[in-house]
Amino acid sequence: MSPEKEPLPDFSDVQGGSSSTAPAPKAEQDAPRTYTVAKGDSLSKIAKELYGKAGNWHAIYEANKATIGSNPDLIKPGQVLTIPEV
User: Fold this and answer.
1) Which CATH number is 59's domain given?
2) Is 60 exposed, middle or buried (0-12, 13-18, 19+ CB in 10 A)?
3) Exposed site from 45, 56, 76, 79, fewest CB < 10 Å?
4) How many domains would you assign to the chain?
5) What residues contact 57, with CB distance under 8 A and at least 6 apart?
6) Residue 7 is assigned to a structural domain of this protein
7) How far apart are CA 17 and CA 63, in angstroms?
8) pTM for the full model?
9) C-alpha–C-alpha distance, residues 48 and 15, integer Å
10) Residue 50 falls within a domain, yes or no?
11) How far apart are CA 35 and CA 61, in angstroms?
12) How far is the CA of 11 from the CAs of 4, 14, 18, 19, 85, in angstroms?
């Protein structure tokens, strides 16, 4: 006589997806926000788009002086700027 096998569990009603209240991994939390300069951009235009206020361009400039140089009016397409929180 062979022993009876238990029926396999039925997972046919399980739906995919995920939900979590766990915080994002530390690496994601610490990653700075960036913006790649496009043709026609200016710091005030970028500030208006990202912050809703063109006058916040100073914050972007201060965070990116090493990339931009001494003239904040001379940003170049392709430059990757760090966008600080304001």
Assistant:
1) 3.10.350.10
2) buried
3) 76
4) 1
5) 42, 43, 44, 46, 47, 72
6) no
7) 38
8) 0.66
9) 42
10) yes
11) 12
12) 21, 5, 16, 19, 46
Residue 50 pLDDT exceeds 70: yes
Q: What is the mean pLDDT of residues 11-31?
A: 67
Structure tokens given for 5: 């096998």
Residue 3 lies in a domain: no
d(CA 70, CA 19): 47
In a domain, 15, yes or no: no
Other residues' Cβ atoms within 10 Å of the Cβ of residue 65: 10
Contacts made by residues 34-40, CB under 8 angstroms, sequence distance 24+: 34/80, 34/81, 34/82, 34/83, 35/80, 35/81, 35/83, 36/78, 36/79, 36/80, 36/81, 37/75, 37/76, 37/77, 37/78, 37/79, 37/80, 37/81, 38/77, 39/77
Residues 62-83 have a mean pLDDT of 98
